[in-house]
Amino acid sequence: MLYYLTITLTIVSSILYHLFLKVTPASVNPMFSLAITYFTASVVTLAIYPFYPVDKLQSIGEMNRYDSVVTEQ
Fold this sequence. Notes:
The protein is an all-alpha fold. It has helices at residues 2-23, 30-48, 56-71. It has one domain. The longest helix has 22 residues, at 2-23.
């Protein structure tokens, strides 16, 4: 099931990207457009994060351990 969800998300994201690319005026600063895109993605991610059924503190701890392993050489 998760496999189909990821494929569907990829397809929908690609379609939305191309639609919004056509709607965005050429006179808009590309950095401003990129900043708005990342801001919107961050807001959506933070809005759905509480509904994800995982121990959030444990996930953060695991991520930090992995980061320290990658950076130590």
